[in-house]
Design a protein that fits this description.
about 180 residues; homodimer; two-stranded antiparallel ribbon; disordered N terminus; 7 helices; disordered C terminus; mainly alpha; DNA-binding
DNA sequence: TTAGATTAGTCGCAACTGCAACTATCTTAC
DNA sequence: GTAAGATAGTTGCAGTTGCGACTAATCTAA
């Protein structure tokens, strides 16, 4: 059936690879891509099949559920690094299902303040434990200290790519 | 302009989060997804704009370039965990551009043996150093030992999700 | 005040990709 | 040998998503 998937390479051998060849299996961007897809698929089983949510919808739910106050679609778009048109469609779908509601912002009538309905909050509360359990399941191959280390290393890369703000930056923006 | 992106949360605080709330910024699946997208985008600048390759095409190129012998589309599909229809279309596009060529396999006329043309090999040789440099650039925020550690942790998760074969499995399949 | 720039959100369009059906070929079982 | 099942690869179709244009509202600067 399947042939060997790592032709001539072994994860463990730390021989320096030639500059003129690239082993996909050791190439971090590819590995991240594949891992991300696999992890997403594993989680999708929790919220897609069971609750009929797709990824953008889940992100809206997660952002609104985590916050106590209402926020704009633009804010969700920034937070989740998801295109505003994608967020817009997700919000529309969630409003139709009465999971999210929005109110005009009198202070700036371009934007709407979004928040979970009671039904949306209930859905959120039901879904979260499942997802956290799934996350722990995926990370269960790591020890507690390895998990911390992994999170810290991810954080370093994220910060260097400016995917998250440092505390100082966040403070500065909250300050004025 | 932008409001703070991590409302009320700090990466560094290691307070145990409540089970009923989930901070996207600490949720590993989300972080992987976002990081993967960002890293892919950073690399795409190298092969998309400059060489007109999309992700599936790059994967075909990378798989064929790494191997010395020809292989089937199915093999590439397995290796890269990319759907066979996607690989099929990528191969078609690369053949039109004379980057890849294929020959019938007399032993099994359902499949074709794929390999890089001279032009394709030249493209590969030109592209690889750029991509490896970009990868190093992205990982330059980590020390050498941190990079090793990160790779090892990725490997653990990959193996637990059966994204890669262990050496033993690969050996077993090569053996018969 | 007012013109020009900026921002929030929506929507049409096009590109991409997974699914599933299809053809051609090979393998297995009888 | 033949029928049933499996496999390689292609393609039509539909769902998703990013881009960019658009409207409406706000901000800026003279």
């Amino acid at each position: 059936m399947a042939t060997a998937l790592t032709p001539g390479s072994r994860e463990e051998t730390s021989v320096r690879r030639k500059a003129s060849r690239l082993d996909l299996f050791r190439f971090v961007p590819f590995r991240l891509n594949r891992l991300s897809a696999e992890v997403s698929a594993a989680l999708a089983g929790e919220y897609e099949a069971r609750y009929g949510l797709d990824v953008p919808e889940w992100r809206v739910l997660a952002t609104l559920g985590f916050r106590n106050d209402a926020c704009s679609a633009q804010y969700i778009s920034d937070c989740t690094r998801t295109h505003k048109s994608t967020i817009s469609r997700a919000v529309t779908a969630l409003m139709e299902r009465q999971i999210v509601e929005r109110v005009e912002n009198a202070a700036d009538r371009r934007e709407f303040r979004l928040r979970l309905t009671r039904k949306g909050r209930a859905l959120y509360e039901e879904l979260i434990p499942r997802l956290l359990r799934k996350e722990q399941e995926i990370l269960s191959c790591l020890s507690a200290s390895e998990r911390k280390l992994f999170a810290a290393l991810l954080g370093k890369i994220e910060r260097s790519l400016e995917l998250v703000q440092t505390s100082q930056e966040a403070d500065a923006k909250e300050a004025y």
